[in-house]
## 1
Amino acid sequence: MSLDLPLAIRAFEVLLGWSLLLQSAEYLRVQRIDRVGDWRIQRAEVPNAWVRQWLDFTYKPTLYSILLWLRGTLALALMLGHAGLGSAVVLFVMALLILLRWRGAFNGGSDFMTLVGLTGLLLAHVLGLFTDPAEAWRIALWYVTVQSLSSYFVSGWVKLMRPEWRSGQALTVFLDNGVYGPLSAQSIYRWPHVAKLCSWSFILWEGLFPLALLDVRLAALFCAIATVFHFLVFWFFGLNRFFWAWLSTFPAILYCASV
């Protein structure tokens, strides 16, 4: 079992493009209903007058909507395999502007993992100007892989250091605050042994994720578990961005585990 480079590139582009397309649709929807993230309030945090004026222009509702529609169009082009260096640059710059618009992140780690994917895409196209395009893509996929594996590794070992995770108490608290929370009094996740077992399963799986690079079959197993995990995060917390943002990195992991 292995994943060759052309297939890994195509899978990465399709999944990243789909993730960006969904995010763009969300931003457009939020723009119509948002009553908190008012740029007129946030602009006071920008000290430089020239930068503030430029951002005032960029974040005008009409222009901001145009930028989001353009982002969605470029995401679709990426899915279809028609995105080059220009598209990669524009998508990367747009991601930075959106992060700035939302004071660093709109939806936590998923936004930064999206930026990782876009950085990988930009690396592939920029390095492709100076070296063999295939080699440039290898470097880009390794970059995405290291960042993705590190995110799981750090998350697992941070949990290991926290007594509330080792005891299982943190899991119950998190689920109590989910979309369908609080948990019912009869929920099995309130059983100490079940909560502790689930917590330690997450700790070990995340902390050992870098072992996925030892063999592509092991990588496939870790990625399959991750897919279920992120789907459960979406199911319990409504965080669909996390599902697609991390899923878009799996082709890179599978490729790097194949070589």
## 2
Amino acid sequence: MVSNNLTSKRITVFAGHYGSGKTNIAVNYAIYLNDLGNKTVIADLDIVNPYFRTKDSEKTLKDKGVKLISSEYANTNVDVPALPAETYSVFADKDCKGVLDVGGDDRGALALGRYVPLILEENDYEMLFVINKYRFMTGTPEGTIEIMKEIEDACGLKFTGIVNNSNIGEETTVETVVSSMEYAKNVSRLSGLPIKMTTVWDAIYDKAKEEKIENLFPLKMYVKQSWLKERDE
């Protein structure tokens, strides 16, 4: 059971460094919102990363009742391809909860920029910075903050919170997560942003709860890297 303190805005944006795990979090969060009884739409704005795709979870999302909007140009080398006009429906339909999965780093954040005026006009959003202590270039709080500022500058929208998704894949243990908390707190301190949630694989969620980590959020592996897909098929 996810903490009752995990409140949501109408629009939730997930962005972060390449390999931070934001796409899998976005899918899990969209399903979570839908399970709470919300009409939920997830829009895949990640136009630069061919390895982790929200579209890979299309069947799962459909089965759960979550609508997916995704660009047909997602895996091309076009810098800022024409995203579906349907993406604007996320902002037009005020009765839905919208989840936006933004591409990695500043280049990926460019796609979000065109929707920023609509997001700011409604002013019912949160933009969450997904961090992972165990990934290249985000191993220190200072390096992580640099990535955060690059994304903000590229899209023109400020982050409002942090998602601590520090993990080492299938080798992740409760101790792995606990060891990342000081790092996450330092990122929070330097940025002035609260830690919205700390994620953990659902298999170790119950054990992780014993550590009294605030706003713990369990994840299922809906989105896998290409080599994991091949191994498991």
